[in-house]
Amino acid sequence: MAQYTFTDIEYAHRKRGARLEEFLGTMEKLLPWGKWTEQIRPLYPDGKRGRPPIGIETMLRMMLLQDWFDLSAEAVEDIVYDSYAMRKFLHVDFLERQVPSATSLLRFRRLLRKAGLESVIRDEVDLRLATEGLLLQRGVMADPKLIKKQ
Q1: Tens digit of pLDDT for each residue in 40-74?
Q2: I need a labelling partner for 20 at 20 to 30 A (CA). Which of 76, 81, 117, 139 fits?
Q3: How, if at all, do strands 147-149 and 134-136 pair?
Q4: CA distance 133 to 5
């Protein structure tokens, strides 16, 4: 995000963060965002025709949020608008751009699935967590323990 908003300042002065923020912070550090972005880049629209494409990393993060929290495409779009922690994880600043649409997410997922990358990324997430001694409980919205030690 380019500049701090009043919300950013307000959140920075809280006494403690939420488990959701802790989980997303762990995933932020643990996952190879650059590597995945470069794997996807040759498949992704270059933006020479039509609307400019949404950033690959943004779409990848949104897809993973959808997986981790067991949400529909529409629900993940809505929850990013509603959750400061998820908006921050997605690197969306409402002063610069909006949350990608559910349709954009569905197209992105279809692109990865067709290339065989969707399952590769999901497996790598699980492997990296296991290497760190962590276990991801899918559908974590229903369970307050986002990640737990094995």
Answers
A1: 999 998 877 777 788 999 999 999 999 988 899 99
A2: 117
A3: antiparallel
A4: 36
